[in-house]
Amino acid sequence: MSQLAINTAQNVNIKFNAASVGERILASFLDLLIKIAYIIIIGYFIFYLLGLSDWMKGLDDWSAAAIVIVFAFPVMIYSIVFESLLEGQTLGKKITKIKVVKLDGYQASFGDYLIRWFFRIIENNIMGGLIGLIAMMVNSKTQRIGDMAAGTAVITLKNNVNISHTILEEVHTEYQPKYPMVIKLSDNDMRIVKETFNRAIAQDDFEMINKLVEKIERVTGIKKQDQSNRDFIKTLLKDYNFYTQNM
Fold first, then answer.
1. Beta strand segments in 197-244, E
2. How far is CA 34 from CA 45, 56, 70, in A?
3. Which partner for 119 in 40, 42, 146, 219 could form a disulfide, CB atoms 3.0-4.6 Å apart?
4. Tens digits of per-residue pLDDT, 76-121?
5. For the packed helices 187-203 and 229-245, what is the interaxial angle rounded to 10 degrees?
6. d(CA 185, CA 167)
């Protein structure tokens, strides 16, 4: 399993394990099963039980094709919709615990998912997806062509790490959070914050901590209360875990 080094905006390298070709194929296969299940259900209930197929026999070829395309449209946009809603995961990726991330450490945007989706259409229609498979096999980051174009990679979330290397913090049940707006950040954002903070503490780099606090305040709108910058970030990490673990 190859490692993927993501360089954050704070010039901190965070190492993830790139999803293997096998994991990506399995996720794609599960997504395919979901699409097939949708087609079978729609075909049975809409076209057979409701008699739409009989009604379509009286239509011209173009009209019939248009109706079929409308019902098949969810299958066509399946990946881009779910990756946008689930922050880099389709249902297949969620089951196999892999996720799309940006190589700069930020959460991928809708534009990134759109690029990946567009290239997936091209890759799947050229040699039956063989080009995308070859690209993943020869690329050290297991990227297909769409990933290269979008500046993304797919990582595995099954890393064997301890609590100090994750966004998890020990939070007691009686804990009182201070900054509810911290939930505007994603898990990936908080992972970057914690990695950056731990690195700054280890290097006694107070300037990095100051910049990190300024970035958080600017992005979230949170205003630091009567705390040091170090205590502020520690509180944010605990608050995030409090809210996300109790939702």
1. none
2. 17, 26, 18
3. 146
4. 999 999 999 988 899 999 999 899 988 865 678 899 999 999 998 8
5. 150
6. 12
Of the candidates 105, 133, 88, which has an alpha carbon nearest to the alpha carbon of residue 11?
105
97: three-class secondary structure by DSSP: coil
Query: Which helix (DSSP H) or strand (DSSP E) does residue 108 occupy?
Result: none
Residue for token pair 């020990």 = 170
Can you give the C-alpha Rg of the chain in angstroms?
A: 22
Retrieve residue 26's tokens.
Answer: 């399995």
d(CA 187, CA 165): 13
- Cα dihedral sign, 113-88-119-105: positive
Partners of 101 in the beta sheet?
A: 153
Q: What tokens were used for 33?
A: 């099963």
pTM, full prediction: 0.60
C-alpha–C-alpha distance, residues 35 and 27, integer Å: 12
Token readout for 27 is 């996720």
Q: Is the dihedral of CA 156, 157, 162, 163 positive or negative?
A: positive
Q: Write the DSSP symbol of residue 183.
A: G
